């Protein structure tokens, strides 16, 4: 199921979406946490991107494992990439949980002049903890996405490109 789309390995296709979506989701959530006056605008995108990040990371992980299973001689070349991808998936799971918590718990003003639709803050300490968690986990997701992609690119391209 996770091996091919037509004649192309699914992993090669899905990683491009994953490498784009994970940092965008993390940056959106970080802005949502740090800029209360934008929360009315970013509440739903934070939730949907957080959940979408889990789906993309899962498909990337499973399709990568299917790719290596189809070509077992790749295993030693992609070991570091695979280990980093496994860690990234765990970070993304935590990120999604924290994004859901932020969606539910962080308050903010409304975009309407009447103020209708504003979400009251449950408690200031809780808001600070959830905001800090979003920032920390979001940064971890961004850094680990870069590290994982770098390891994969090195596994594929190391020694194949002409020197600068």
What this model shows, in words?
The protein has a single domain, classed as Four Helix Bundle (Hemerythrin (Met), subunit A), CATH 1.20.120. It is 72% helix and 2% strand. The protein has helices spanning 10-34, 39-70, 79-105, 124-157, and strands at 4-5, 8-9. It has a two-stranded antiparallel ribbon with strand order 1-2. Helix 1 (10-34) packs parallel to helix 3 (79-105) and helix 2 runs antiparallel to helix 3. The longest helix has 34 residues, at 124-157.
What tags apply to this protein structure?
164 residues; mainly alpha; Four Helix Bundle (Hemerythrin (Met), subunit A); 4 helices; elongated
Briefly summarize what is shown.
With 164 residues, this protein is an all-alpha fold. Helix content is 72%, strand content 2%.
What is the strand tally? 2
State which percent range the strand residues make up: under 5%
CA gyration radius, whole angstroms: 19 Å
Instruction: Tell me roughly what share of residues is in helical segments.
Output: over 70%
Order of secondary-structure elements: EEHHHH
Q: Which structural class fits the helix and strand makeup?
A: mainly alpha
Low-confidence stretches: none
CATH architecture assignment: Up-down Bundle
Query: Whole-Å distance between the termini?
Result: 40 Å
The rough form would be described as elongated
Strand order across the largest sheet:
1-2
Q: Residue-averaged pLDDT, rounded? A: 89
Major sheet characteristics: 2 strands, antiparallel
């Amino acid at each position: 199921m996770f091996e091919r789309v037509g004649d192309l390995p699914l992993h090669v296709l899905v990683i491009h979406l994953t490498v784009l979506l994970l940092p965008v989701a993390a940056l959106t959530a970080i802005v949502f946490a740090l800029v209360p006056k934008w929360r009315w605008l970013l509440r739903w995108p934070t939730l949907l991107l957080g959940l979408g990040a889990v789906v993309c990371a899962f498909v990337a992980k499973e399709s990568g494992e299917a790719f290596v299973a189809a070509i077992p001689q790749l295993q030693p070349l992609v070991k570091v990439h695979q280990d980093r991808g496994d860690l990234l998936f765990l970070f993304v799971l935590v990120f999604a949980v924290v994004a859901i918590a932020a969606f539910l718990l962080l308050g903010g003003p409304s975009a309407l002049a009447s103020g209708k639709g504003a979400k009251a803050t449950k408690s200031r300490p809780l808001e600070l903890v959830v905001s800090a968690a979003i920032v920390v986990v979001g940064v971890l997701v961004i850094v680990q996405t870069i590290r994982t992609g770098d390891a994969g690119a090195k596994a594929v391209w190391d020694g194949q490109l002409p020197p600068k």
